[in-house]
């Protein structure tokens, strides 16, 4: 598809302002939570990204009326007529996102049955759903796995459970929350994930009438209630998108004010950004990130669950690390295959070597298992333009950063994938002075994405 290629002329700094809206990793889940209520919910600060449109479609298939609210970026969801959707209609969403798995608990509570299509999402590892199915069974659900997807029922209702996760999985923690809030009795979840997006989901559920406490030792306790109402909530800002723009500023020697970025959610990132040699200033309305001049410093870094360094920050930061002087070490401990994108950076002139050992940090689940999950980055490297094919969401944005930092012209293929998580990224790039264009047939035209994430050209 012609529109799916972006031509990027690199070599000039990104300068100006972008705004981040609600977090991609909260908004679709808060939309699922609306299913649990018996009154309409209002979600604010909703970004126009593909994942939101997918969940909107899924909710509508289940009888939820979804419409724009009075405020800009506000969605209203009215679940008063929830019904079982047609399996073939749901199946049309197969492979589009990982969010459908989170509909299990809410649908079992509301209509006693659920069909979940085969999941999609970024190919950054095997991404199994075993934890999800195990916790659903602990609540009393039966799961029938068939080639087209999962059929779930709860013949005796859903009951609170004592659960300990083998790993603090974000999605499984959300699964437990969305199921336990209306299960009979209390649920205790040990080794839970506590990412800011999860805490924000807990805030949403509490507004609906749920009783949830979070202890400092990764233990979440939920007392089930019989009925939940609606909520009005402003989604927390997207700290992953914020960090992506920060890395773009650093790698291109630029200066970007990210309106909406919040210090509290980005503390770990900010520490690393400063260690590498980036400068930032926290202001009331956002955070300004810039390259202060001089050399960037190599660092050793390990990704981890919150409050560690988020895995989704890793890929954009690696591009900036190609510009640091010396050897940087990155140990990816959350996903086993999230460093494959570096081969394209090498093609552009970077020197990045991958290892299957756990380098520079504590041994992780992937050590001794032949996954290339550690990287040594030798810099600074002079990057040059190349033909790139986007592998996944964050890897894709990282390719854009690399293309912008490189000398010469790059063709970035598969840019439509970026619309899954970055609202109007073309428009934002243009506002920062990036020189990007569609292929020659439509040359000289700036591009933008509409609220549905579809790419179109603007004169
Ligand atoms: C969420 O994925 C995010 N996605 C990811 O963001 C993010 O990288 C990840 O959390 C970690 O922060 C959304 O919120 C939609 P996990 P999730 O369950 O919930 C293993 C982005 O670019 N695991 O915390 O799917 C799994 O394989 C995306 O914005 C199992 O083994 O992640 C991984 O190694 C990409 N079995 C680890 O746990 C399971 O049943 C963490 O995964 C579930 C997970």
TrEMBL record:
Classification via Pfam families: EPSP_synthase
Pathway named in the protein's UniProt entry: Cell wall biogenesis; peptidoglycan biosynthesis
GO MF annotation list: UDP-N-acetylglucosamine 1-carboxyvinyltransferase activity
Coiled-coil stretches: none
Keywords: Cell cycle, Cell division, Cell shape, Cell wall biogenesis/degradation, Cytoplasm, Peptidoglycan synthesis, Pyruvate, Transferase
Listed GO biological process terms: cell division; cell wall organization; peptidoglycan biosynthetic process; regulation of cell shape; UDP-N-acetylgalactosamine biosynthetic process
Catalytic activity: phosphoenolpyruvate + UDP-N-acetyl-alpha-D-glucosamine = UDP-N-acetyl-3-O-(1-carboxyvinyl)-alpha-D-glucosamine + phosphate
Subcellular location: Cytoplasm
Residue positions where 2-(S-cysteinyl)pyruvic acid O-phosphothioketal is found in the record: 122
Positions of phosphoenolpyruvate binding: 24-25
Domain Enolpyruvate transferase: 9-429
Active site (UniProt): 122
Positions contributing to UDP-N-acetyl-alpha-D-glucosamine binding: 98, 312, 334
InterPro entries according to UniProt: Enolpyruvate_Tfrase_dom, Enolpyruvate_Tfrase_sf, MurA_subfamily, RNA3'P_cycl/enolpyr_Trfase_a/b, UDP_GlcNAc_COvinyl_MurA
An example Gene Ontology CC term for this record: cytoplasm
EC id: 2.5.1.7
Membership in a protein family: Belongs to the EPSP synthase family. MurA subfamily.
Described function: Cell wall formation. Adds enolpyruvyl to UDP-N-acetylglucosamine.
Protein name per the record: UDP-N-acetylglucosamine 1-carboxyvinyltransferase
Species of the source: Yinghuangia soli
Gene name in the database record: murA
């Amino acid at each position: 598809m012609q529109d799916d290629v972006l031509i990027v002329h690199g070599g000039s700094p990104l300068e100006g302002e972008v705004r981040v809206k609600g977090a991609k990793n909260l908004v679709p889940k808060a939309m699922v939570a609306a299913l649990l209520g018996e009154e309409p919910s209002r979600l604010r600060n909703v970004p126009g990204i593909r994942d939101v449109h997918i969940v909107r479609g899924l909710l509508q298939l289940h009888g939820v009326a979804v419409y724009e609210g009075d405020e800009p970026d506000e969605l209203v969801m009215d679940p008063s007529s929830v019904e079982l959707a047609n399996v073939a209609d749901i199946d049309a969403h197969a492979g589009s996102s990982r969010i459908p798995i989170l509909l299990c608990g809410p649908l079992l509570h509301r209509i006693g049955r659920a069909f979940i299509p085969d999941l999609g999402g970024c190919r950054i590892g095997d991404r199994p759903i075993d934890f999800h199915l195990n916790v659903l069974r602990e609540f009393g659900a039966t799961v029938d796995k068939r080639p087209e997807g999962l059929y779930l029922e709860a013949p005796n209702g859903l009951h609170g459970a004592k659960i300990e996760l083998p790993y603090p999985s974000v999605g499984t923690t959300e699964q437990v929350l969305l199921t336990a809030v209306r299960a009979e009795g209390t649920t205790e979840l040990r080794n839970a994930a506590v990412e800011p997006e999860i805490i924000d989901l807990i805030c949403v559920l509490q507004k609906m009438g749920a009783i949830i406490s979070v202890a400092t030792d990764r233990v979440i306790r939920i007392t089930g209630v019989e009925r939940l109402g609606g909520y009005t909530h402003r989604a927390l800002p997207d700290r992953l998108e914020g960090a992506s723009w920060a890395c773009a500023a650093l790698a291109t020697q630029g200066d970007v004010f990210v309106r909406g970025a919040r210090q509290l959610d980005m503390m770990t990132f900010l520490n690393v950004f400063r260690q590498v040699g980036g400068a930032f200033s926290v202001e009331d309305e956002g955070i300004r990130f810039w390259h202060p001049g001089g050399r960037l410093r190599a660092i050793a870094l390990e990704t981890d669950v919150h409050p560690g360094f988020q895995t989704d920050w890793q890929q954009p930061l690696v591009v900036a690390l190609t510009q640091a002087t010396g050897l940087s070490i990155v140990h990816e401990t959350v996903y086993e295959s999230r460093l494959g994108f570096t081969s394209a950076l090498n093609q552009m002139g970077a020197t990045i070597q991958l290892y299957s050992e756990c380098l520079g940090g504590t041994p992780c689940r992937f050590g001794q298992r032949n996954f290339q999950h550690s990287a040594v980055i030798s810099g600074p490297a002079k990057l040059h333009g190349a033909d790139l094919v986007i592998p996944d969401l964050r890897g894709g944005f990282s390719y854009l950063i690399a293309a912008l930092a490189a000398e010469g012209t790059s063709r970035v293929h598969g840019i439509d994938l970026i619309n899954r998580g970055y609202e109007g990224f073309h428009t934002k790039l243009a506002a920062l002075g990036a020189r990007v264009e569609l292929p020659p047939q439509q040359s000289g035209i700036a591009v933008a994405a509409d609220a549905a994430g579809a790419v179109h050209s603007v004169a």
